[in-house]
Amino acid sequence: MKNDSPLSRKDFLKQGALGLAGLGTAPLLGQLPAARPNPMENNNLQLLKNVRLETGFSFDGNEVAATETGLFCIAVEHGKIKAILPNDPQAKAFDAKGMLMLPAFKDMHIHLDKTFYGGPWKIIKRRAGGVKSMIALEQEILPEMLKTSTERAEKLIELLQSKGSSFARSHVNIEPTSKLDSLKNLQRALEHKKAGFDAELVAFPQHGLYYTDSVPFMKEAASMDIDFIGGLDPYSIDGSIEKPIDFTVQLALDHQKGIDIHLHESGQSGVDTIEYLIKKTMENPSLKGKTFLSHCFALAALPATTLAPLAEKLAEAQIGIISTIPMAGRIMPIPTLYKYGVKVATGNDSIIDPWSIYGTGSVLEKACLMAQLYGFGNEFMLSRSLALATGNILPLDDQGKQQWPKPADVANFVFVEASCSAETVARVPEIKHLIHRGNLVY
């Protein structure tokens, strides 16, 4: 399992290159300052004490038996971790009270722009006829939803924060009904929440590129403050694999954006779409590491003899898979994807909107579900499963060497009442605090 961080929306999210040896064995990088700072100023944390960090694994033979931890002080400056210091229980500091500090979570597939969350309980009856019937339904209800979409997006962001996420990749409707209004409304919500939340935005032609004439709106959105060019089931919605993919790839290249395409098609057209996107990515190496397939249900139905070589191709093209880990008959082959080095992420997708009524806002629950689905029942595999919630950031590497936190890392973390990552995944404890760029936001 690779521990690469996902693409960041802003340059400040890029982590520094300063190193730190294993906390349990190597000398620490500093001593507490003689004049201790005010631990909080306008919710900006400067010093934290009694912080529990993972320091290594203990082994029974070759098997990880337990995760070792210790208590430390964390110094924060300008939104980044300045130093990891010996614990001083008497320090004038924010008291973590022995709680475990873990990387903040990242929801890598959600639709913040269209939700009923924050309003009364509401179920929209799904229409028979598949995605095209749902497109017709959206065309009817979106004008009314847009009237409150900024406020609803803010409420949904607050839900994600309460579940430990301070970052999301949000798909945003770009189509003739919403035009660019859905994008503009969400950008207002993100501006209001910028002190405690960051996002990547995907310009998403939810109603098809050509099925409805979304092309001019997509071109305009690509020149705005978005990060990815999206797409939707090119064959079943637009009647062609090549034409929509070619447009998406060229638009991404022209504007130096990434690509994130919804692919629900589970038959041969789904496999053919995967193969064609791999081909286009290999032809345009600048898209490697910046191209993703969301859902990608076609992978769930493939036999091992077909899946393995396709996973190898995805890894070579550095195309990531964003899986919502569905339970309705489709179990994604995440262990196989990990085996071949494919980057895998997850998100809550829809939370009470026209498409779904399910979702708690917790990507930690998704990590727990993954561990249950694939039988990750030991200390080591449970600890590795945390990567699904954190965007592939883990406190310990596979050998048990401490790799997070380090000086110069962005100060984005959560506190939970748990002894280690493995227990956190297995038990899904309540998030006690969320810190974003050094600010206490929950």
From TrEMBL:
The Gene Ontology terms for molecular function here are: hydrolase activity, acting on carbon-nitrogen (but not peptide) bonds, in cyclic amidines
Q: Which residues form a coiled coil?
A: none
One Pfam match, by short name?
Amidohydro_3
Q: Start and end of every Amidohydrolase domain?
A: 249-392
**Please, which domain of life does this record's source organism belong to?**
Bacteria
| InterPro entries documented for this protein | Amidohydro_3, Metal-dep_hydrolase_composite, Metal_Hydrolase, Metallo-hydrolase_Enzymes, TAT_signal
| NCBIfam families (alphabetical) | PRK06846.1
Q: Under which name does UniProt file this protein?
A: Deaminase
